[in-house]
């Protein structure tokens, strides 16, 4: 592996074209990377798997999309803290027979998104993927490191009864694309027609805006789906919630179920005290009020017309389990 | 996965017993962990895969050893920078049929080592491992975060012609155990009889001592084997090296080949100006001078009796390829 590891390090250095930047004085090629954060800032770290046939399929997702999506997951976590990402680490295990072209396109997708957000690829690890021939899968683990002023990061735990609940963008677009893929597994979707699924945009500017203006009391990114992620906020804050079906912004052509339970939208879900004025758009993206935080630990309700029903977490499991069967 | 993820987070919180420690004000359970480094310090980050059948085998390595070894790899990287580790992140993909007992013992091995070095398990990710039944493997990626005073981390790139070359401990013990396992794959080795292989000890105290006393000009940890890792130092420093076979400290019962090319010893390899006085033992571990840095980019020679021969990198590949065939 030494030679191919060396060649991929060389490739990353070429493709990223960044070395010795101020916040990453020592990047790829030593025992550890050296990072610097401005004084008075704290460090944010998040790590996310992207595993073939669990998080993506090579038959469905072009390599550029796989590279983009695996970094977007981590960037979105930093966005949800109101932080500024600046370094990423890529652990990559590849099947022996994987074409070099696939790897190059994967790296291109990842590094293009990294560049857009001034994130340096500062290290990682390479290995051969275990398993024989077709059972060997592409395995990716991505670490994103960011920073935020000390004590100012937005957490899941700050929601208070009475707070309003907001989401950015539209929900369910990624689930809509995924359901189309499952319905006709042999038919490819055109990534340009489903950008929310193939090239989701982490809401970093919105996260920072909310932190800088002290608008949000809690925040999370929508990776598992609204029903699950709202439950996370309620659990960590020790509160309940009520959301209104007709307020939930749906993706074009999407269903309420997809908007409620579909994952991987990478929009932001946040709460804010009722008297806080929240702009209708931030950084060009719509911000929509969808409900209110209530008393009653982790009791999440959906008001749909005249009916009220429980909104249990775990909607996204449907897709996950389906994907797992592969 | 939500439920099992929640249960493993709960388990980790119980087992680690650490929350809200000063340097990790926010750990497992939010979008990202929040870490603090002392002012005037820089952040060190390293990430390492431990993949079943590539880095370990379930038939050979008890789960406690797997947990210990995957964290030891990362700690050893921080040791090689002269740093102080304080947080770890565990990304863990598990086969659906893996017994909970295995996971518990794995976590115990990992967290026991973490506790010994005051490292907080601050986050990570959970997923189901891809592949059907027996083709699904245990996949681990571990991130270790440490710190060191700004500009003082020890790098691979500081070796100068004339510098002396040193190693800590004895070399080849891990390869010796691995060769025994390959020779008789059905026969289990007793971990207590091969602690260097099953429970390697990262040389953190030595790394810090060398940094604090400004003794070393360059350093790396021996994960790939002396021949390969010395080559890394030469490459990054733009120098050559000559080591003397009879000076290389061999493991009990080990061969010269194992000491030269065997990996996963997790000892430290460092260089120091010739006039720098290096203690014969540091933190109870022997420190041995084995050769000298020379001019001539990446030309590494071995003096063996009256003969001199090239010492090419990549010895460890032998073991890696053998392991890969599984």
Question: Would you give an account of this structure?
Answer:
The structure is a homodimer of 326-residue chains. The first copy, chain A, is of the alpha+beta class. Chain A folds into 2 domains: 2-149, 60s Ribosomal Protein L30, Chain: A (2-Layer Sandwich); 164-324, Phosphoribosyl-aminoimidazole Synthetase, Chain A, domain 2. Helices cover 30% and strands 26% of the residues of chain A. Chain A contains 9 helices and 13 strands. In chain A, helix 2 packs parallel to helix 3 and helix 2 (63-79) packs parallel to helix 6. The longest helix of chain A has 17 residues, at 63-79. Chains A and B meet through strand 1, strand 2, strand 3, strand 4 and strand 5 of A and strand 1, strand 2, helix 2, strand 3 and strand 4 of B. Strand 1 of chain A pairs antiparallel with strand 2 (41-51) of chain B, so a sheet runs across the interface.
Any descriptors?
homodimer; 326 residues; alpha+beta; 60s Ribosomal Protein L30, Chain: A; Phosphoribosyl-aminoimidazole Synthetase, Chain A, domain 2; 4-stranded mixed sheet; 9 helices
Outline the secondary-structure elements.
The structure is a homodimer of 326-residue chains.
Chain A: H1 2-16, E1 33-35, E2 41-51, H2 63-79, E3 84-94, H3 100-116, E4 120-128, E5 139-149, E6 164-168, H4 173-183, H5 195-198, H6 204-212, E7 218-221, H7 226-237, E8 240-244, H8 256-261, E9 268-272, E10 281-282, E11 285-294, E12 300-304, E13 307-310, H9 317-324
Parallel strand pairs in A: 3-4, 8-12
Antiparallel strand pairs in A: 2-5, 3-5, 6-9, 6-11, 7-9, 8-11, 10-11, 12-13
């Amino acid at each position: 592996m030494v030679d191919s590891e060396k060649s991929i390090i060389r490739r990353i250095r070429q493709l990223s074209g960044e070395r010795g930047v101020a916040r990453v004085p020592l990047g790829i090629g030593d025992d550890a990377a050296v990072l610097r954060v401005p004084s008075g800032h704290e460090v944010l770290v998040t790590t996310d798997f992207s595993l073939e046939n669990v998080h993506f399929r090579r038959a469905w997702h072009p390599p550029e999309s796989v590279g983009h999506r695996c970094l977007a997951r981590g960037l979105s976590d930093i966005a949800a803290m109101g932080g500024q990402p600046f370094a990423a680490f890529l652990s990559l295990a590849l099947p022996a027979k994987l074409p070099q072209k696939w790897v190059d396109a994967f790296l291109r997708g990842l590094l293009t998104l990294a560049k857009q957000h001034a994130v340096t690829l500062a290290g990682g690890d390479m290995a051969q993927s275990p398993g024989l021939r077709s059972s060997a899968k592409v395995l990716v683990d991505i670490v994103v490191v960011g920073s935020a002023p000390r004590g100012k990061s937005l957490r899941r735990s700050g929601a208070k009864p009475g707070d309003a609940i907001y989401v950015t963008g539209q929900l369910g677009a990624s689930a809509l694309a995924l359901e189309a893929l499952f319905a006709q597994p042999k038919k490819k979707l055109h990534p340009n027609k489903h950008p929310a699924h193939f090239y989701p945009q982490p809401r970093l500017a919105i996260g920072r805006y909310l932190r800088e203006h002290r608008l949000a009391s809690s925040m999370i990114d929508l990776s598992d789906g609204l029903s699950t992620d709202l439950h996370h906020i309620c659990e960590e804050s020790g509160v309940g919630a009520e959301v209104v079906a007709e307020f939930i912004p749906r993706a074009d052509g999407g269903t309420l179920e997809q908007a409620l339970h579909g994952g991987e939208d990478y929009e932001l879900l946040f709460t804010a005290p009722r008297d806080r004025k929240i702009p209708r758009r931030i950084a060009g993206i719509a911000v929509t009020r969808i409900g209110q935080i209530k008393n009653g630990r982790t009791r999440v309700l959906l008001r749909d017309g005249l009916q009220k029903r429980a909104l249990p977490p775990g909607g996204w499991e449907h897709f996950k389990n389906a994907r797992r069967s592969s």
